[in-house]
Amino acid sequence: MAFKTIVGLEIHVELSTKHKMFCNCPNEYGAEANTQTCPICLGLPGALPVVDKEAVEYAIRAGIAFNCEISNVIRMDRKNYFYPDLTKGYQISQADLPLCDGGYVEIELEEGTKKISLNRIHIEEDTGKQTHTDEGLSLLDFNRCGVPLIEIVSNPDMNSAEEARLFLDNLKDTLKYIGVSDVRMEEGSLRCDVNINIVDKERGLKSNISEIKNLNSFKAVVKAIEFEEKRHKDLLEAGDNSEKETRRWDETKGETVLMRKKFGASDYRFAFDGDIPPVDVSDEWIEEIRKSLPELPHHKKERFMNSYGLSSYDAGVLTQSKELSLFFEEILKYIDDPNLVSNWIMGDVLRRLKENEQEIEDIKIASKDLADLIILVRDGKINNNTGKKVLREMFDTGKTPDLIVKEQGLVQISDEGALSGIIEEVLNNNEQSIIDFKNGKDRAIGFLVGQIMKASKGKANPQVVNKLLMEEINKR
Amino acid sequence: MVTKEEVLHIAEIAMLSFSEEEVDIFTEKFQQVIDFVDTIKEVNTEDVEPTFSINDDTQMLKDYEGDEVLTREEVLQNTKDHQYGYFKILRVVE
After folding, report:
1. Is B69 a domain residue?
2. Can you give the residue range of the structural domain that contains A381?
3. Confidence bin at A112 (pLDDT 50/70/90)
4. B4 to chain A, minimum CA–CA distance in Å?
5. pLDDT tens, residue by residue, A24-37
6. Span A60-104, pLDDT tens digits
7. A175 and A210 share one domain
8. Residue of A nearest to B85 (CA)
9. How many CA atoms lie within 13 A of A134 on its CB side?
C-alpha cells in the first residue's frame, strides 16, 4: 500500500528581548522563582499591558528571514482557558490577524530544494511554569509569564521525519543567526508541537490528525513522527482509524500517550483584547529592520560555495553558526586558501570543540593565531602531527603557535645534515629491518621511519626523512 | 436552540459544575440571551466597517531602559499558600 505521511509543525520561540512582552520585567532565564514579575504579568486587576517594541522588532526580523508578509497593524486577542499557569484566565495572543503572514523555509533534500510553506508567525505571551511535587501539589513560578513568544506555524508540507528535522535545523540556525532567540530546547526557549496524519492513496483513506506535545529535542520530534506514522498506518490497515486527539511524547517509553481531549478552537473564545489598542507598523520601520538583518545562513552558504569553491557539505557546516562562519572568514584575511582553512576547521578544530563540549563562541584561539599555525604547517616549519599537537596546546592555553613551537622546541628538522646522523644511527641499530625490506617486506620502512621520528622527538620532516632513508638503504 | 449538552460543555471549559436543576435554568437563560442578541441581526450592516474598540486610536510601543519588578514578598503577600517562594496549589493534571 502507498502511504504518504503529512506533517505540520508549530514552533514556539522565546524571544531574547530585554523586557517581557507587555511589561518592564526583565526577560531572563533561570532567576529565582517569582522575582521577575509585576502587576501586569501577574494579571492583577487594573494593570494594563503595552506591547514591547523590541519584541515586535524581533518578530518582524523572523518574519522577514522566513519570507513572510508583514502586517501594518498589530492586533492582540485573548485566548481564554483556565489553567493555573495563567493568572488572567486568558493568554494574550493573535487570532485572525498575525503579525507575519505566509512565508516559507527551504530545505535541502537529495532530490533538490524543497519549499516548506508557513501559515503564519504570530506574537503572544508565554505562561508561568508549574512544578509538580510528589505530595500532589503544584508549585507556580510566574517569572516566565509574559515572556515574548513567536509561534511559527508551518503548513502540512513535510512528508517524513527527516524533512521535519531539516526544517527545524534550518529554522533554529536562522533564528540564532538573526539574533532573536538563543533557541535552547533544553531551556524551553524553543518548543515544538507536531501535527501528523497519513494518507492511503490507493484506498483514498486518511487518518485523523494527532497533535503531539512535550517534544523537548529534535531527536524526540523525529522519533515521535516515526512512532505515529506506524501507529496510524497500523490502524488504517486494520480497517480502523486514529482519533483526532492530543498526545504526549513519553521519552522513557519511547512512545506517544493520550492527553486529555483537546478543546476545539472555538472553545478558546478568542476575542479582541480591549486593553490593547491596535499598533501601527510603518513600512519605513519594516524596511529599516530588513536592512539591519545579517546575511542569512542559506545565502552565506551559497556565497561560500561560489566564492571559495567549497563543497556544499563544507559550506553548510561552516555557515551553520554565525560565529563559525565569521571565524572562518577572519582566518581567510591572513591566509588566502579557503580549502586549506576549511580542512583545518572542519577537521581538528571542530573535533576538539566537540571533545571539550564547547561551542565556537568559547574558543580561546584568535583567528590570526590559527592562521599562523596553518601557515607554519603549510610552509613546513612544523610537520602535520606537530601542528595538531600545537593546536591542542592552543586550545588549552590560548598561547600563540609561535610561542608554543619556541617553548617546546618543535621546529621541524628539514636539515639533511642533522637528519642523516639520526638515520644512520637508527639503521645501524636495526640491521634486520634493512634485510627484511630488501626481501620485499615494505612494512619495514614504516617501522624505520617511526624509529627516526621517535629519535627526532617527532620533529623530523617526513618527506626529507623518506628521501634520505631510501638513499641510505640503497647504499648499504 | 441551545441544548443541555452545550451548556454542560461551556460549564466544563469554564471549570464550573452545575446541578441538574441549574443546567435546566442555564439552558433557558442562555436561550434568552441568544434570542436577545439575535435582534442585532435586524440591523443593516452593509458597508459598515467592523468596530474593534470604542475609538480608533492606535497605541505606541513601549521602549524602556530600566526594569520594573515587584519583590517576591510583595508578589506573595496576597496568597495564603506558598512554599520556597512559589505559589502552592493543589495539583492540576492536564
Report:
1. no
2. 295-407
3. confident
4. 16
5. 999 999 899 999 99
6. 999 999 999 999 999 999 999 888 888 999 999 999 999 999 999
7. yes
8. A33
9. 0
Residue B21 lies in a domain: yes
Distance CA A177, CA A296 (A): 7
B-chain residue closest to A278, CA distance:
B58
Would you say residue A290 lies in a domain?
no
- Please judge whether A137 and B61 are an interchain contact, meaning their C-beta atoms are less than 8 angstroms apart: no
**Single residue among A348, A383, A407 that ends a domain in this structure:** A407
What pLDDT does B93 receive?
A: 62
Query: In terms of residue numbers, what domain contains B36?
Result: 1-43
The verdict on B4 touching A (C-beta cutoff 8 Å) is no
- Residues A38, B66: C-beta atoms closer than 8 Å: no
Nearest to A75 among B52, B75, B94 (CB): B52
Residues 6+ apart with CB under 8 A from B29: none
CATH of residue B7? 1.10.20.60
Task: Please name the residues in contact with A369: beta carbons below 8 A apart, sequence gap of 6 or more.
Answer: A394, A400, A401
- Name the domain count of chain B: 1
A289 found inside a domain: no
- Judge if pTM exceeds 0.90: no
By the CB < 8 Å criterion, does B64 face chain A? Answer: yes
Q: Which amino acid is at A182?
A: D
CA A188 to CA A192: how far, in whole Å? 10
Model confidence pLDDT, tens digit, residues A130-155: 998 888 899 999 999 999 999 999 99
Q: What contacts A277, CB < 8 A, 6 or more positions away? A: B53, B55, B57, B58, B59
Query: Do A315 and A280 lie in a common domain?
Result: no
Q: Do A50 and B62 touch (CB under 8 A)?
A: yes
Is the CB of A82 less than 8 angstroms away from the CB of B64?
Answer: no
Q: Which residue has the cell 524543497?
A: A114
Whether residue B52 lies inside any domain: the answer is: no
Q: Is B88 on the interface with A (CB under 8 A)?
A: yes
| In a domain? residue B18 | yes
Of A25, A138, A274, the CB nearest to B69: A25
Question: Which residue type is seen at A5?
Answer: T
Determine the distance in angstroms separating the CA of B68 from the nearest CA of chain A, rounded to an integer: 5
Cα→Cα distances A138→A44, A84, A129, A426, Å: 21, 9, 10, 75
A125 and A15, same domain (yes or no): yes
Does residue A132 sit in the same domain as residue A261?
yes
The answer on A278 and A329 residing in a single domain is: no
Do A256 and A228 meet the contact criterion of CB atoms below 8 Å apart?
Answer: yes
Over residues A249-292, the pLDDT tens digits come to 999 999 999 986 656 767 888 999 989 999 999 999 999 999 99
Question: How far is the CA of A402 from the CAs of A30, A345, A371, A397, in angstroms?
Answer: 42, 19, 11, 13
Q: How many domains does chain A fold into? A: 3
Question: How far, CA to CA in Å, does A268 sit from each of A119, A275, A459, B16?
Answer: 20, 18, 73, 16
- The pLDDT score that the predictor gives to residue B72 is 95
Q: How many CB pairs under 8 A join A and B?
A: 117
For A49-67, the three-class secondary structure string (H helix, E strand, C coil) is CCCEHHHHHHHHHHHHHCC
